[in-house]
Amino acid sequence: MKHLLIGAVSALSIAGAAQAAPKEINFWHAMGGQLGEITDKFAADFNASQSEYQINAIYKGDYTETMTSAIAAFRAKEQPHIVQVFEVGTATMIAAEGKGAVYPVYKLMADAGVEFNQDDYLPAVVSYYTDTDNRLLSLPFNSSTPVMWYNKTKFEELGIPVPTTWDEVEEAAKKAKAAGVEAPLSFGWQSWTQIETYSAWHDIPMGTAENGFGGLDTEFTFNNDAVVNHIQRIADMGKEGLFKYGGRRGDSRGMFVNGETIMWINSSAYYGGFKKDITDWEFGQAMLPLDTAVAEKPQNSIIGGATLWVLSGHDQGDYKGVAEFFKFVSAPEQQAYWHQATGYVPITTAAYVQSQEEGFYDENPGTDTAIKQLSLNTPTANSKGVRFGNFVQIRDVINEELEAVWSGQKDAKQAMDDAVSRGNDLLRKFQSANE
Question: So which residues are the signal peptide here (predicted)?
Fold first, then answer.
């Protein structure tokens, strides 16, 4: 009888081990709406593909809220395994990596023994998130770039050619306004689209020390004549009713969807939502306009979006699951689906090739605009991207100063001088805290 009991207990132990609960891995993200549904689907599909790990995808609010929540959680030793951080938080996360708070992706994958080749990722994407030794610190997840969205139906109706320069944008806006279009031009994420990307597109620096890539002693220089004249041009267009400001992020999206605006500069990642919401007319996307007073040809645009950062402080066994999840979401099938459904660029060459082979770009003209812009030329020190400390707060400063221009309280020169001065103060605070 004793032997039977021992055998029964042993059998139960073996069965219990075989059915052990999967290791739970918390993934905090900032993807709402349709993007959140796809992000949740990635987690669910990964969970269904194996039984050892369970990814808990948790929406934590917008980019700023998600990053702030993760920092607070780390201080309380309640941090998630993975957190999605937008590109302007990169310098802050790199500083955290230097203090042991971040588990760099290149090290994570090697330690976990999970296959990983950095060369599989698009150079324009990974260059933003590598250290000085070209090692990848965070996993590219959702990368986009600004494009010019336009109301193709209205343009054809009015006989207006799609603008390729800012002079042509202004001319198109005047024709549209005369034809009854309420506010022909608008844009979102204005620091990103009208200063950061404008500077890269025209191969001019936004700051010293290679836009912050070269060190913490960087200083802003975007109060240069090119940017000042560009911002003043838009302000002047606003006075004529050709431009209307609609908010700091994607707030002005509705103006484009309802036809109030027929040229809208913002992320390529609005594609999926536009495809769903715009049913009464046809939209298109074109490359960003060139300011011919500044450059003869465009350089390349820069990325926005976010990457997945791994936070330290968890059991080492959990990190094997993180690495396996990263391998899963980087696979061509997932990335091609993400790209085609959302408008974010495919982060790997294989996903781009798969989209080509599936005929996606032939069936949906213009959907490769973002990729073409990012890979137009080899990035220079001016067009690789920006890596400024405290840049989340600095963008708020830039927003405030630009809003003062749009409302007529300041001219562009004064506003850009003030933004540079205030921004440099924040750069010095970041430098003193991290050197």
Answer: 1-20
Report the number of distinct structural domains present in the chain: 2
347 in the same domain as 249? no
| Count of positions (residues) in the chain | 435
User: Mind listing the pLDDT tens digit for each residue in 274-316?
Assistant: 999 999 999 999 999 999 999 999 999 999 999 999 999 999 9
Residue with token string 């997840």: 141
What distance in Å separates the CA atoms of residue 374 and residue 403, rounded to the nearest whole number? Answer: 28
Amino acid at residue number 353: V
Could you give the CA distance from residue 366 to residue 178 in angstroms, rounded to a whole number? 28
Residues 291 and 422 in one domain: yes
CA-to-CA distance for 79 and 93, rounded, in angstroms? 14
Instruction: Name the phi and psi angles at 238, rounded to 5.
Output: -60, -40
Distance CA 300, CA 288 (A): 10
Check which CATH number belongs to the domain holding 272 and give it: 3.40.190.10
Helices (H), 179-311: 190-191, 197-201, 208-211, 225-239, 253-257, 271-277
> Average pLDDT for residues 72-81, to the nearest whole number?
95
Report pTM.
0.91
Reading the block at residue 206, the tokens are 């936004």
The single residue listed with the structure tokens 């960087």 is 218
Integer angstrom CA distances of residue 394 from 96, 191, 214 = 19, 10, 19
Q: Are residues 296 and 309 in the same domain?
A: no
Domain assignment of residue 225, given as a range: 146-301+389-434
